[in-house]
Amino acid sequence: MGKSQETFNKKEKEKKRLKKRQAKQAKREERKANPKKKSGLDDMIAYVDEYGNITDTPPNPTKSKEIKAEEIQINTPKKEEVDPVRLGKVEFFNEDKGFGFIKENGTNEKFFVHVSSLTEDIAENDKVSFEVERGLKGWNAVQVKKV
């Protein structure tokens, strides 16, 4: 007679399967012994409180606020028209390399300027007017003119 084909690993797997079956059977019997009430619509309703959080309690009507329909903005508010032309002073300009920096009056922000965005020739310490546009590495001054 040959050895049994049942190995230790097979025995362990069979024990695990048996434990799972028994646990499942115990849960089934527990549910039969203690039936829950069927969930109604009231159990499924959720409310939103005044802070925007979801809750299961209905809102308190005494805390409600009256909102006028005219005050509700459906679209985004219009932006104020800002003059795109800014004033500044040429802080540094290298004519050989064709670039420099302009320091804006008031905010003291510096903007990169390239010779291709000049409308007239500029030099260091010139007062200029310019517009800004987004470049690859930050804001660039464009349409640069002497004032």
Describe the structure.
There is one protein chain. With 147 residues, this protein is of the alpha+beta class. It has a domain at 86-146: OB fold (Dihydrolipoamide Acetyltransferase, E2P) (Beta Barrel), CATH 2.40.50. 20% of the residues lie in helices and 29% in strands. The protein has 2 helices and 7 strands. It has helices at residues 8-33, 41-44; strands at residues 47-48, 54-55, 86-94, 99-104, 110-114, 127-135, 138-146. The chain has a 5-stranded mixed β-barrel with strand order 3-4-5-7-6. The longest helix has 26 residues, at 8-33. The mean pLDDT is 88.
Write the layout of secondary structure elements.
Layout: H1 8-33, H2 41-44, E1 47-48, E2 54-55, E3 86-94, E4 99-104, E5 110-114, E6 127-135, E7 138-146
Parallel strand pairs: 5-7
Antiparallel strand pairs: 1-2, 3-4, 3-6, 4-5, 6-7
Largest sheet: 5 strands, mixed, barrel
Binned strand content: 25-35%
Which CATH class of the domain at 86-146? Mainly Beta
Total beta strands: 7
Annotated CATH homologous superfamily of the domain at 86-146: Nucleic acid-binding proteins
Taken in chain order, the helices and strands follow as: HHEEEEEEE
Quote the distance from N terminus to C terminus: 110 Å
Category from helices, strands and their pairing: alpha+beta
The percent range for helix content is 10-25%
**Architecture (CATH level 2) name of the domain at 86-146:** Beta Barrel
Helices, by number, come to: 2
CATH topology of the domain at 86-146: OB fold (Dihydrolipoamide Acetyltransferase, E2P)
